[in-house]
Design a protein that fits this description.
single chain; alpha/beta; seven-stranded mixed barrel; 7 strands; binds zinc ion
Length: 134
C-alpha cells in the first residue's frame, strides 16, 4: 500500500501539530483509495475532543459530516491523522482503535522529530504504509 500526499497537506498537518502541541492534533483524510494506493485530496483538520497528549477523539458528528462531504464529491474516507508528542508509531490505544476502523489508513506525525509514518491493519497485523510526497 502506498499513501500519496501533497506537500501542502503535510505542511497543514505539521502546522496543526505544532499549534496544539503537546496535545495530539487530529485530522481526517479524504481522497481516492484502491487496493494498492490511496491518494489524499483533502485534509480536514478537527479538534481533539479529549485535549490529551496520549489519545485523541474526533467528534462523531464531524466524522459523519466528513463522510457525507466525501460521498458528495465522489471521494472516499481514506484515513485518520494524529500527532504524537512521542515517536510516530501506533500506541496500544491506537492499535485497539485500528481494529474498529477496518482498512482505514493511520497517519501519525511525531511532533518531536517531525517524522511522518503511516500504518494499516492487514488481517489483524499492523503494516507500515509507504508515504509518497508529491
Ligand atoms: Zn496515537
Amino acid at each position: 500500500m502506498i499513501l500519496r500526499l501533497k506537500r501542502h497537506h503535510i505542511e497543514l498537518l505539521k502546522q496543526e501539530a505544532k499549534k496544539v502541541h503537546p496535545v495530539e492534533a487530529c485530522a481526517m483524510l479524504l481522497g481516492k483509495a484502491s487496493k494498492n494506493e490511496a491518494v489524499v485530496r483533502k485534509v480536514k483538520v478537527t479538534p481533539n475532543k479529549l485535549k490529551s497528549t496520549e489519545r485523541f477523539e474526533i467528534d462523531a458528528e464531524m466524522v459523519a459530516a466528513a463522510i457525507t462531504e466525501a460521498e458528495k464529491e465522489c471521494l472516499d474516507f481514506i484515513g485518520l491523522f494524529h500527532s504524537h508528542p512521542a515517536p510516530a508509531v501506533p500506541s496500544t490505544i491506537d492499535l485497539k482503535y485500528m481494529k474498529l476502523w477496518g482498512d482505514t489508513l493511520w497517519l501519525i506525525l511525531s511532533s518531536i522529530d517531525d517524522k511522518l509514518a503511516a500504518y494499516q491493519l492487514n488481517n489483524s497485523t499492523v503494516e507500515e504504509v509507504s508515504i509518497k510526497m508529491e
